[in-house]
Design goal:
The protein is an alpha/beta fold and 494 residues long. It has 2 domains: 228 residues, FAD/NAD(P)-binding domain (3-Layer(bba) Sandwich); 163 residues, FAD/NAD(P)-binding domain. The chain has 9 helices and 28 strands. Strand 21 and strand 22 form a beta hairpin. Helix 7 runs parallel beside helix 9.
Length: 494
């Protein structure tokens, strides 16, 4: 027969159920272990010494005492740091895991999964990108470099004391549902460890797994993805072909103008180009009255023609989509150099033959280095895809983060929109943290969201029809998305 709880234990249970008391694990403890103590038992690590998990959102019952297990937070890039900040603010216990030795994610070029290159800068201006409660210094350039942003995230982590919540140099290997919680396995210091958690919050970014196309034939020169490009020295003395005209592709082909023997750009579709400056100010700061989309396209299209010119006049193909139906290219130099003859626009590739590239229009040219700037795929290798409600090119999640059936699994930062910035992602993190807290406290607002998300996937497009590409599978319309998120933050008590 189970042992009857003592009087002291019954008092603790009563306080927890009434919301007037909290588990010792509900607030982070000092040090890198933060929200849980790790110990080795029979060759494996356990959290807090517990071997069984029951209940909802990590209520662990042992000898009649309920204890909240921490959430496993994966990633310490911009999204991971935003999650860490709001979880701590809401008093939700968590343990962070980061593969690199410090915070910053892809913006730290020294990181093992960083896809940064030396010439990279923000494509949105600092005031439209920064966290609202941690603005960049006035002396920072409008479009800061990756080096400046690395320091910005270091300062952000210092300001909100976030490093103490993380295990650095820890690679998460597996996340598996177990009983009412999760079993998480990670590698750290050359050894595998495992622990029990109440939930999993994935914030490992969207730009780390290269989308490398297959080509007919074999290239005898050097063929790399843009993820492998770091420094213009890789181009010196080489004839360079860049494949893909997105933001990275246009940056890299401009590098080739200055450091390679030639700079060619292979495109299979056209793009809408946005200059970085309009009337001497960052283009994304030139806001005005809200306009219907048909009128906004007409007005903005006219402004773009004034300041960016007509890309077709210098060889770029015409876009096959309307303005804002795909992420625009924010670049003032690619058209400039194409107009000067420094960049030669080539059609789509048909095949490779030695160092010769055959194009679909029947022309050909020889190259030494081919860089495929062909984008990235969502990559969550540590969890079964079926658990993420994956459909097509991306998981189908309510507001791009909430699982329709689970309240202990969240995919953070799987959202993209022109001008969303890190503040928009911070709002997503705040909504999720308040939702978790609301469920634990039994709030009506949290239960309403729980019911709403169970009804199925609804993409927040604001009436836009986005092009059917993998990189657009999790794209949203900024204003509509932020309005939906902030509405729920308010309902949850924010």
């Amino acid at each position: 027969m189970p042992k009857r709880p003592t009087l002291a234990q019954r008092i603790v249970i009563s306080l927890l159920r009434s919301g007037k008391g909290r588990s010792p694990l509900a607030r982070p403890t000092p040090g890198r272990k933060a929200a849980a103590t790790i110990r080795r038992t029979s060759g494996r690590a356990c959290l807090g010494g517990h071997s069984r998990v029951r209940g909802v959102l990590g209520q662990d019952e042992e000898e009649g005492v309920l204890q909240e297990l921490p959430i496993a937070l994966i990633g310490a890039g911009p999204m991971g740091l935003a999650c860490a900040k709001v979880l701590a603010e809401q008093g939700i216990a968590f343990q962070g895991f980061e593969l690199h030795g410090d915070v910053g994610g892809l913006w730290d070029i020294t990181g093992p999964r960083s896809t940064m290159y030396e010439s990279a800068h923000l494509i949105s201006s600092k005031t439209k990108t920064e966290f609202a409660d941690f603005p960049m210094d006035k002396g920072v350039a409008d479009y800061p470099s990756h080096k400046v942003l690395r320091e910005y995230f270091h300062a952000f982590a210092d300001r909100f004391d976030l490093r103490r919540h993380y295990r650095f140099g820890a690679e998460v290997l597996r996340c598996e549902p177990q009983d009412a919680g999760w079993r998480v396995v990670w590698r750290e210091g050359g050894e595998e460890h495992e622990g029990r958690f109440s939930g999993v919050m994935i914030a490992n970014g969207t730009l780390s797994e290269p989308n490398m196309p297959r080509f007919e034939g074999a290239f005898a020169g050097e063929l790399i993805h843009s993820a492998q490009y770091r420094h213009p020295d890789q181009m010196r003395g080489k004839r360079v072909l860049v494949i893909g005209g997105g933001n990275s592709g246009c940056d890299i082909v401009v590098d080739a103008v200055h450091h390679g023997l030639c700079a060619d750009l292979s495109l299979r579709r056209g793009y809408h180009f946005v200059p970085k400056y309009v009337f001497g100010k960052p283009a994304d700061t030139m806001g005005g009255l809200p306009l219907p989309m048909w009128l906004k396209r007409r007005v903005d299209g006219m402004i773009l023609r004034w300041f960016a010119g007509d890309p077709q006049r210098v060889g770029f193909p015409a876009p096959d989509h309307k303005l804002y139906e795909s992420h625009p290219v924010v670049n003032s130099l690619a058209i400039f150099h194409a107009g000067h003859g420094d960049i030669r626009i080539q059609p789509d590739i048909a095949r490779f033959e030695g160092r010769t590239v055959h194009f679909r229009d029947g022309t050909q040219a020889d190259y030494d280095l081919v860089i495929a700037a062909t984008g990235y795929l969502l990559h969550y290798p540590f969890i079964d895809r079926d658990l993420l409600n994956w459909q097509g090119a991306a998981p189908h999640l309510f507001l791009n983060c909430l699982h329709p059936a689970r309240d202990d699994l969240f995919v953070m930062g799987m959202v993209e929109a022109t001008g969303l910035g890190w503040q928009g992602r911070h709002e997503q993190a705040e909504m999720v943290a308040r939702y978790i807290k609301g469920l634990r406290e039994g709030s009506a607002a949290a239960k309403a969201i729980q019911t709403e998300k169970a009804q199925g996937f609804a993409r927040v497009t604001g009436g836009m029809h986005y092009v059917d590409l993998p990189r657009m599978a999790y794209y949203v319309e900024r204003s509509a998305y932020r309005a939906a998120v902030t509405q729920r933050i308010t309902a949850l008590g924010g």
